[in-house]
């Protein structure tokens, strides 16, 4: 393909808009209708191998779905034609940018996120009513035109819920935005509307924070998508309301049943999100008691006091009588105890009752447990009902790789509901040093038993973790190489 090429006798190619894994999209001008359109070409080499039939079928399926879904927030498909040794789809041209390019510069303001995502939820609601699951929601498949309208595109790997032809086919998706069930061979065919809502939640997270919640190699991302909950986005973007953050966190729950079950329900929650107040802290604060302020003295009627006759005070006489009586009684008691007929001071101590021990304080339901030495698979069943668990760093340690060596908050501390427990994981590869914990034999000789829960002393990390996106940077770095923020 090249600029100026005439396709099918009516489309003049203007410029290439972008390339993907299966094809490329060109801006073209329709000679007869005098209108700009977008042409999506399938790479010819994909049709040459054994999978060519399946790929061409999916490409045609994308055209059919786009043509049948008539919605103002879905890119409309106009035609499907063969050309030379490939095929192309004719679509409406959206004069704007995709969401990926927009959020590559800065996180979106909350009002923009709600405005765009509400429109995409409307598009998904229409698709789901036709039993169509998109399965590849991500920023690059969402377009924003110059008027602020959002469009959903690329139904190339969409699945019809009443179709069984794709149930066990190859898993084609974008791992950074795919739902956990899209990686499991047992549940791959059991996608649902909640699958798209998970991917949209990850997209919202990216738009709100400026980075996708899970990054790394493909296998690392797949593991995190299926086992790790990200920290709430409002902890990374303080301008984001707790209500919108809560909508995102529910959308990215690992289990389908815990997410929103329809796009309309999520849209309603997102519409009300900015008005949801921040949950109050669990700390009990004493409320001061205010007493009514007395009226100013100038407003009170002054009543004259009757004059009393002056009397001579005899209070000092009663003081002398009281002191004398006390000395007399003290002498009697002293004499009795010294004669041996009474109870000695030593005997008196037998009747002194020790103070009753204070009852143990009940353990709060929000007290953080000890997670040291556990793997993420062991951590999640413990924490997922009350908190989020996020692996934020990995250090060299004598502990087995993939186990917790530090946590924040520490065990025994209290953490609010749905708060985040930040975990430091062992990466292994540590060498035993003389300053490490004594071995079992040494501990036995010293008469002490090493505590199992005492963490192994970690070697100093050879990198600096960005608190914003979790990227590993050189120790000397002051700016994160990934998100560009100060560290």
What does this structure look like?
With 487 residues, the protein is α+β, with helices and mostly antiparallel strands. Among the domains are: 6-92, 2-Layer Sandwich (Phosphorylase Kinase, domain 1); 96-275, Transferase(Phosphotransferase) domain 1 (Transferase(Phosphotransferase), domain 1). It contains eleven helices and 16 strands. The strands form five sheets. A six-stranded antiparallel beta sheet has the order 1-2-3-4-6-5, covered by helices on one side. A three-stranded antiparallel beta sheet has the order 7-9-10. A hairpin with a 6-residue loop joins strand 15 (464-465) and strand 16 (472-473).
Low-confidence stretches: 161-170, 277-304, 336-352, 430-461
Please identify which CATH superfamily of the domain at 96-275 we are dealing with: Transferase(Phosphotransferase) domain 1
Number of E-type strands: 16
Give the CA-CA distance, first to last residue.
45 Å
In CATH terms, what is the fold-level topology of the domain at 96-275? Transferase(Phosphotransferase), domain 1
Q: How many H/I helices? A: 11
Sheet with the most strands: spatial strand order: 1-2-3-4-6-5
CATH-scheme architecture of the domain at 96-275: Orthogonal Bundle
The geometry reads as: elongated
